[in-house]
Structure formats: structure tokens, C-alpha cells
Amino acid sequence: MRNNKVFTVSDINKYIKALIDMDYILNNIWVQGEISNFKRHTSGHMYFTLKDQNSAISCIMFRSSVYSLNFEPKNGIHVMVQGAVSVYERSGQYQIYVNKMEREGIGALYEAFEKLKKDLEAEGLFEKEHKRPIPPFPRCIGIVTSPTGAAIKDIIQISKRRNPNIDLVIYPVLVQGEEAPKSIAEAIKAMNEWGQADVLIVGRGGGSIEDLWAFNEEVVARAIYESKIPIISAVGHETDFTIADFVADLRAPTPSAAAELAVPSRIEYISKVSNIVRSLNQLIDRRISLYSNRLLGMQNRVIFKKPMELIYRRQQDLDDLEQALHKNINNKLRTYKTHLIHTINTLETLSPLNTLTRGYSIIMDHHGQTISSVKDVKINEDVNIRVKDGFIQACVKGTRKEVEKDNA
């Protein structure tokens, strides 16, 4: 009888998986190698083998992580993967569950890309205020690219199809290799010195990050920034972004798209002009109809049909106003006359002279002051007596004060 415990295959696989999962090094590890046996499943997951000269290890990258890739993995390329080593219990196979994947040597390029991007952004080379508008009707378009690549063929074909009347001037440059950045920068400067192009397309077709690296160099970025001519960048495919794209006045996802953006469609603009002409004609017709109706309405008015009748009406109004004015003036005069007579009668009633007609008189001293008391005169003083029909001069011979009777 066996004294040792007997394990199942599942027990062993689970035990080994638990041991590996507890290893902190294997839980987060970077591994480099060459891809082989690459397969993309319909589910979106990727299965492949990572190998070097002596060994190989199976790898799986789930769909959620695949979305973050900026390149297409394939057999034969060297990559670095980050993930966790674990055991697939069903087969007992240990493998790397990959979270990230980079082209081998790409890490340093990405670091250089991010550093330059950060520095240029801080310097203001990406500011919207510096972006120049792309001219809507260019007469001449400069193209800075390789004269033999697919990009230039696409640009020429689309440009000529959209508007054959626009001149295309190609400045051939290197778009890959050590001399490419200098070649591109000098071409941009030369096109500015020439000064005949209304807009520049600067770019190339697709490729790896190494292939596109010339457009990530500072010398190219500064040449684009210093250009007086608006620049459309057209580097690689839609998912490719370079420093040149951030500095350019407009980014096109592809060279073909750059031609679409730079060259106005002759057919589209003819159609737009036709629509504008049609709209203007309709507007003019509406205005003519409006003013014609207004003119007809004015012609039917009395002032145009019988101009003298309007004058007669106004003359009649004037006569009516004149009569009303005379009537109002007479009424006012009668009112004021009645008031004046009443005032005169009141004054005459209250006048001291009116009292004189009833036998009374007024005595005044030689100053003309009225004497109302014996105290106001002296003996032998001359006085004037006012009667109803004149004055009497007299001399005071004496005075007698009347004694007041006691009412008690």
C-alpha cells in the first residue's frame, strides 16, 4: 500500500500555477524575443511564440490589450513584451499573458519623441494662434516628399482629378535615413525663398516608426514652424502621429487626404457658384417683384392720380383751420372784454373818488398825504380838500377832538 498521497493532473497544474502566480518577478516581467507562429483569432486575441536562439515561450495577448498597439505584429519582428507568466491549467503549459508590446528598440525612440514633443510644446510651437489658414483657392501647391514613393503618385492623381488648373511643384527630398531630416528642412526653406507656392504638402507614405522618424526630428519641426507658407503634414497612415503633425498648420491622415484638403474640387466649386448665382437671381427676382408691387401701389394713390385734389384737400383743411382760428380769437376777445368790464366796475366801486360823488371829501397835507386825524395837522397849516369836481385850498384855524361816548 502506498503511503504517499496521489495527485491528479489537475492538482499538479493548479499547484504549479499557484507557485508561479505568487512569484513577484514573474507577475510583472519584460521579455524580448522574435515573434513566430503568430496567429490572430477571430475573437481578437493574438497567439504567438516568443523565441531567441536557444529557447521559446508561448504568449497570448487578449483583445483588450491588442487595441493599444500602434503597429501590426507579424512573424520575424523583434519585440519586447510586458506581462505575467502563468500556467494554462488545461494543457499544463506555462505562457506569458502579454499586456504591452513594443518593437525592440522602439522604447528609446518613444522616449525621445515624448521629450521633444514636451519641449516644443512648452516653447509654443504647437499653439493654435500660430496656425495659418489653408488658402481656399491656391494657384500653386508645393509638394515636399520623395519623388519615387507612392505618396507623390496619390497626391498628383487626386490633385489633377479635383482641379487640373492648379500648378503642382515637387521638391524631391529624402524621407528616410540619416540625411532625411536635413533634406526635408532645407526643402521647406527653399520653397519659402522661392515664394510662389500658396501651400505646402510635406509628408510621405506609411511605414514603421523608424521609417517615419525623420518627421520627428527637431530640425524639421522648426522649419515647419518658421515657414511663411501654410503647411499640411501628411505622414504615414491615419494612426501615425509625428512631431511634424503637431507643428503643421493642418494635419492630414494620409498623403491622399492632404491632396483632398489642399486642392479645391473644380466640380464642387462650379456647383457652389451655380447655387450662389441661382440664389442671387431668386433674391433679385423677389426684390424686383416687391418693388414693382410697391410702385403699383404708389401709382394708385391719389397723389399720383390726382395731385391737385390733394392740394385742394389741404387748402380746404387750411380754410377750416383759419375759420377756427378766427372763431377762437373772437371768443377769447369777448371773454377778456367781459372780464375787463367787470374789473373796471369793481375798481370804480372801490375807488375813493366814487365816494366823493356822495358828498364826501378827502383832506391832504401839503405833501399829498391823507389827513385822517386832528393829530395830523397843525394850526395855520395849509391843507388841500379833494371834492368830486376839484380841490379846495384851506388853512387850519383850529381843531376839536370829538369825545368818544361811553357805551357803558
TrEMBL record:
Entry's EC annotation: 3.1.11.6
Gene Ontology CC terms? cytoplasm; exodeoxyribonuclease VII complex
InterPro entries in the record:
Exonuc_VII_L (IPR003753), Exonuc_VII_lsu_C (IPR020579), NA-bd_OB-fold (IPR012340), OB-fold_nuc-bd_dom (IPR025824)
What catalytic activity does the UniProt entry give for this protein? Exonucleolytic cleavage in either 5'- to 3'- or 3'- to 5'-direction to yield nucleoside 5'-phosphates
Q: Which UniProt keywords apply?
A: Cytoplasm, Exonuclease, Hydrolase, Nuclease
Would you tell me the protein name for this molecule? Exodeoxyribonuclease 7 large subunit
Q: Where in the cell is it found?
A: Cytoplasm
- A Pfam match is Exonuc_VII_L
Q: Which family does it belong to?
A: Belongs to the XseA family.
Its domain of life? Bacteria
Keyword Cell wall biogenesis/degradation in the entry? The reply is no
Self-association and partners: Heterooligomer composed of large and small subunits.
The Exonuclease VII large subunit C-terminal domain, residue ranges: 125-340
The protein's role, per its UniProt record: Bidirectionally degrades single-stranded DNA into large acid-insoluble oligonucleotides, which are then degraded further into small acid-soluble oligonucleotides.
Q: What class of enzyme is it?
A: hydrolase
User: What is an example of a GO molecular function annotated in this UniProt entry?
Assistant: exodeoxyribonuclease VII activity
Q: By which gene is this protein encoded?
A: xseA
GO term, biological process aspect, one: DNA catabolic process
Q: Where is the OB-fold nucleic acid binding domain?
A: 7-102
